[in-house]
Design a protein that fits this description.
The chain is an alpha+beta fold. Helix content is 32%, strand content 17%. It is built from 3 helices and 5 strands; from the N terminus they run βββααββα.
């Protein structure tokens, strides 16, 4: 039986997710769609209609800063389904 090393973390740790020794600062559209459980097509439509979080686009690559994602989630948090989620 193999002994597990307690210092190695295998679960996703969000903002402090480390890849290749560098701190993770952005998600691509596929990762964000997975985080929110929506389709990539929805994110693309939101970008076109200026409804979603702020994004960065370099060439064909679209990324979302984690700080912008978290700010968008805070702005759209609701206590009631009676109020609109976004303007």
């Amino acid at each position: 039986m193999q002994k597990q090393n307690p210092s190695v973390r295998t679960e996703r740790i969000g903002r402090s997710d480390v890849r290749g020794g560098a701190q993770r600062i952005a998600f691509d559209e596929y990762e964000l769609a997975g985080r929110w459980g929506i389709s990539v097509k929805t994110l693309r439509r939101w970008r076109q209609e200026q409804l979603g979080p702020v994004f960065c686009k370099l060439g064909a690559r679209v990324t979302y800063l984690i700080s912008e994602i978290e700010a968008f989630e805070r702005r759209n948090a609701r206590h009631s389904t009676f109020t609109r989620a976004y303007a």
